[in-house]
Structures are given as C-alpha cells and as structure tokens.
Amino acid sequence: xxxxxxxxxxxxxxxxxxxxxxxxxxxxxxxxxxxxxxxxxxxxxxxxxxxxxxxxxxxxxxxxxxxxxxxxxxxxxxxxxxxxxxxxxxxxxxxxxxxxxxxxxxxxxxxxxxxxxxxxxxxxxxxxxxxxxxxxxxxxxxxxxxxxxxxxxxxxxxxxxxxxxxxxxxxxxxxxxxxxxxxxxxxxxxxxxxxxxxxxxxxxxxxxxxxxxxxxxxxxxxxxxxxxxxxxxxxxxxxxxxxxxxxxxxxxxxxxxxxxxxxxxxxxxxxxxxxxxxxxxxxxxxxxxxxxxxxxxxxxxxxxxxxxxxxxxxxxxxxxxxxxxxxxxxxxxxxxxxxxxxxxxxxxxxxxxxxxxxxxxxxxxxxxxxxxxxxxxxxxxxxxxxxxxxxxxxxxxxxxxxxxxxxxxxxxxxxxxxxxxxxxxxxxxxxxxxxxxxxxxxxxxxxxxxxxxxxxxxxxxxxxxxxxxxxxxxxxxxxxxxxxxxxxxxxxxxxxxxxxxxxxxxxxxxxxxxxxxxxxxxxxxxxxxxxxxxxxxxxxxxxxxxxxxxxxxxxxxxxxxxxxxxxxxxxxxxxxxxxxxxxxxxxxxxxxxxxxxxxxxxxxxxxxxxxxxxxxxxxxxxxxxxxxxxxxxxxxxxxxxxxxxxxxxxxxxxxxxxxxxxxxxxxxxxxxxxxxxxxxxxxxxxxxxxxxxxxxxxxxxxxxxxxxxxxxxxxxxxxxxxxxxxxxxxxxxxxxxxxxxxxxxxxxxxxxxxxxxxxxxxxxxxxxxxxxxxxxxxxxxxxxxxxxxxxxxxxxxxxxxxxxxxxxxxxxxxxxxxxxxxxxxxxxxxxxxxxxxxxxxxxxxxxxxxxxxxxxxxxxxxxxxx
Length: 866
Fold this sequence. Notes:
By secondary structure, the chain is of the alpha/beta class. The strands form 8 sheets. A 6-stranded mixed β-sheet has the order 6-9-8-7-10-11, sandwiched between helices. Strands 21-22-18-23 form a 4-stranded antiparallel β-sheet. A 3-stranded mixed β-sheet has the order 3-4-5.
C-alpha cells in the first residue's frame, strides 16, 4: 500500500498550521462530477493526465486523517475546489476577516484584496502575495487576472485564450483597456494590425476563456465559522490512522507534544549578553560543558564578503545567549566590539575539551576566520547529519529540519529582514528580535545534535560521518578561503570577442527568420519557428510550444535556424554565466574568486559548487576551454596542477562487480574501450578504429548510468536494433557486470536502499512503483549510486589525506577546486615534484580496489593547459 501521498499531505498540513497559526482552517477538494466549465467547453482540462492509481487509492486516507484531526473539508458536486475557496473568501470578505489562501494556482490571484492574501509554500520560505506582489509577479492587478487569462489562456487547464497573445502583449493591452470586454468591444483602438485581427477573430474564445478562469463565489454551501475552528489534538482516532499507515516518527512527534498547535508555548531561556561580566560568566560555565552549538548572524550569505553582526551560543537545551557585535547603534542598546570580545571568546573557541557543533558550520568557520577567530574541536554539523540520513531530501535547512525532528516552530529570516527591495540586513534589526531568532537557531542546533547522533548510530553511518564528512568541512573551508585567480585583461578580451560572436549569430538568425526578434524569448522564438516557418511543434509546455534544447536538436535537420539558435544559446549562456560575470565576482581584498563548495547538494555524495559554479565550465568545447584559459596561478613562480582519476568509475565497477574480464583487463593495463570495441564489433584489437573505440566508450560509461538502447541509438546515430545488439553483446562479454546489476536491483528492492563501498546510503523506494518509467529511473539510480557514490567518497578521502600531508610538511601548495574526479592545485615551482608524489599516492590509495587506480597529473600556467 503506497503512503507517500498521504505522508506528504499531512506534512504540508502540519507545516501550514505550524507556520501560519490559523484560528480557522478549511481544506477543499475537487469533485469527480463534471463542472459547468466542462459543459460550456468540453476540452477544459482535457490535457490533464488521470490521477495515478497509486495516488487515488490514498485519497480515502487523507479524508480519514482530516476527520481524525477534526479538520473540516469541503467537496461540492459539480464545483471545483477553487470555487469553494472563492465562496469561503467572499463570506470572509463580507465579515472583513483576514483570510489566507494556500495554493500554487495563479488563477486564485483574482481573490487577493486588502483582507485576502495568497500564501505559496516553498521548500524553505513562504511567499505571501498581497495586491502589490501580484502586480509584481503577474504584471496586472488582482481584479484583472481573469482578463489576463482570457487573453493568454492557461495551458494547465487547457484554457485557449487568444492564439499568439502572450503575457507581455496581454499586459500592454490591459494597460490600454480597463477590461477584456472593452478590448473586444473596441479592437479598432489596437494599433498593431496583426494583433487587432487576432482579437477580432477570437473575440468569443477570449470571453469564453475569461469565463472559464473566473471562480464562482456563490457555491451553495452551509457556512458556520465555528465548524472550521482549529484545535489539533492527538486523539485515539489520529493514533489509529497513523499506526495503520506506519507513520511512526510523525506519531512520536505528536505524542511528545499533545497539542501540536501550541509549539510556541515551549519554555526557553534566551538572553542577550550586553555586559562584559555576563559574557565572562557565561563562558566560565560553557567551558565546563561537553558540547556547545555556535551560530553567527551576518549581513549576507557570502562568508567572504559579509560582516559579522552577532554570535549565538547554546550548551543546554532550551537555553541560549546572543552577543551583539555590529548592530547599528539605534538598534543595539549595548553591543561589543570584536577587540573586546576576542580575548573573552577565544579560550572557548580553542578549547579541546569542549566539542563544537553547528548547522552548516563551514560558513561560521570562514566568517569567524575573517575576523581573526579560529574554532577548534568541531565534531558535529547537524546539516551534514541530516544529509547523510536523508540524501534525497530537497533541503537540509535548519528551518526545515528542526520542525521535523524536534517539533520546534522555526521562524524564517524574512520575518526579520523582509523581502525584495524593501528588505534590510540583520544589523538593522532590533537587537531583541535578532537575539530571539539567533538563540533559537543555536538552541535547535544543540538539540538536533543529540537526535542525529543516535540516528547515525542506528543507520550505521556514524563512521562515514566522523571519518569523512566532518573532516572534509575543514578542507572545503580552506579551499573557499584560498579562492582562485583569474586574468582580468584576458577576460576583457574574451568578453569583447564573445560579444562580436553573439552579434554575428544574432544577425544570422535574423536573416534566416527574415526579421529581428528576441532570441532569448521562448514565446517569440516559438512564433518564428512554428507560426512563420511552419516547423512542426515537438512538445508543449505550460506557456506554449517548447523551444528547449531537445526541440531545437530535433528540428535542426528541417531548417538551419534551430541549429543556429543552439549555437547562439551556448555562447550566450557562457557569456552571461562566466565571461561577463566572473570578473565582477573577484573579491576586492583578495583579488580572487571564492566559490562555495556544497556537501549536501547531491544524493550520490558528490560535491557541488555555486556562486560561481566552477564545476559546470565545459571542458570539451572550444568556448569552455577559452574560459578555463583565464584561470591562472595567483602568484609569480607558481603553476596550476591538475590531478585527475583515470576511468575511475569503470575501475570501481570492475571491483564491485568482480567481473573477471574487466578485472583482468585493468590489471594488465589494457585499453578498456578498445577491448570492449573488439568484443561488440567482433574484431581484433589492432583493427579497432577511433570511431569504434568511441562507440565502445559510450557504451562502457552508459552502462553505469543505465543507458537504454533508445538512448544509445540516439547517441551513436544508429538504429535501435544495432544499439540493442551492442548492449546485449556488452553483457555477454562482461557477464559479471550483468549479474551484479541484477543482484543490486534485487537487493535494493528488498532492502529499500543501496550502499557505496564506504557505507553511504541512498534510499530507492520507487523500485516498487507501479509506474514503469518511474521504476526504471529508480533502477538506474540503484545501479549508478554505488559506483558514483564510491567515486565521490574516494576523492573526498584523498582530499582529506592531501590536506593533512600539506599541513604536516608545512608546504605552501593550495588546493583550489574539486571538479568531480579532478583536483586543481596552486603550486610553487619548487614544490612541484613533491606535490606530484603526495597527490598521486593519496589519490591512488584512498580506497583500495582489486584493480590499479591511476591518476593523471598535468601542469600549466592556466587551467586549460592542465
């Protein structure tokens, strides 16, 4: 019995209650009966797929859950949930109540008023839409939303609108006219002849579309406000449903706090330390504790550019302190200078007796490092623990994790700072509010550590956590501080050249289309390709016909414009993402670019990089190599050194599959791609061409990622039959690989997870999904994760070992970047030979395999040369 739908629903429901604290609540559902919209327009929602069987069988449990909690829900035959919502909103408006509608549907922006706002729940924050924000989001006021949809249509509901009228045009029309009715009444006032013709020809369709998009506010329902009063309690009925569905952790949370809606009543002792004597007293007690949680409040999320505003600390559940440092005077009411604070806090930070923990403590390490403070004896990071336990989780933010694990209501930072142009930095927040926020973060982190320690032990992840992920924090923190230098003059020349190339490509596209158009507008590109050139649409998205990469690739044989657009997009993306952006990201003090390395960004354990993302610079294209050429050593007499694992994923595959032929080939130093080619093409190795070897390489690596015959046929531009034979021949050649894949999928289906060689877990619940495509995707994950995850663990181990060796020998060499299987170092010329030895040894011995591990070393005066 699948339960993921019910679980997701109840999690969201409890989050809504926790974060909005409503007095009254109603949940609405669509009815199965046809609505009036279907009667007046049979194609309404015709493109909607039927509800999956797995989800449909869970709906009765959702109703049971709501009944058990005493939460009122409404369904009315012949009406949609939106109509019921609109009716409730109207009744609330009549009584001038403050109402919030939780929905992701833009149609309901039409309900927004002074008393009614829309809430959209994101992974981390809640977006609240009043009339001002609706205008910013949609370009029209709430009262014009239905006019807007009457013109543009809505692909999700299959509302047609006026063909060729997109959001930009609709906004312009609704600035000129007060309503859709006025537009169709006097189309002669529209200057654009083509647009005028469309409005005249599709007048009735536009009015119909508006009617379809307009919610009804008079659904016949009995309304008694008291029936919607919210008072969630853990009743026997709730326990019965939770136990039947095996929601054990969720049930335990409710058992710990019988009144879920009363979370805020939790007793805490949060203090602001304004006096030196108070700080000294706190630190005397803290130095006797086993653990202390640390959190910093700063003016931005960039640890290399932000200013430290305050520090919060907690060594006891429910208790925390906040030390204000840089609040503006009128907000502070007493604060401490770093000069005075440093001698007081240093003994605690450097203590080897007191263990330190944090949530994303790498950030705090670098923030404190920049003001001359060092933290020693860091043994726990609650964000990393959350990641190891739930690697597929979308976010490991404290604001997400703490409520789930501790039943603590957290406050989003936007509550203090606001959003958008009106937002402020935390140094301008009242110190009492900032202290409450910061103390809660430190307190929650302190409590999470104990919870996660137990869970890591129970999951068998304790060793991986303490020997790999936690030690890596310090390596990555130093890499971020190291940064990497770029040649500013070179990037200036490259920018000029790329602008000329872009201008030339734009001109070629205009010539092929017969006129100028916005190459960055999917709507305009679609108009040129499908309306003007008559090319066949490939697929349709929410806003019209798609013009994504796969579509342009499909259309390229039919006309030269799609291919030219692809070329333009490559140049344009590289220009905006790197060529134009990188010089502006050089730090004013260090003269280097400082990326952030993310330990929690991928389910396989691989590191990722952001702001800027240095891992995504192409290596095989001329444009990508041109960008890499601009990365240089930051000091004279230094070089860049690249160390790259050779075919590491195939070597790991050989080890874990124990395939005799693969193991023998690697041990004998054979070229694995040539060997594979000789088998699938039935030719001696000396007769294998580069094309044949390339095809074999695609298959060798494709197997790791579960490449299908369809995909292989497309990659190699061969028939499906040929591609299938290649794959069949591959598995006949490497029977051990085939057996390992079958065994891995079978065991993963039984256990629900797969493991890397070092014990990293990844859960694959969709292996039992009834949907064939979803199940096939899960099988690919089950096969790939032990290989790619082991590769990620291996390079992490190597990084830690190299870092320690550099410190031990007091070498000047710096580790700058990690890109999947490659490490980039900045090396003084006199250290090159020693660094080659250290890096090769540590990388090749990080995780012993049954086959040799090979590392390629290259040296250059820029990254491209490496």
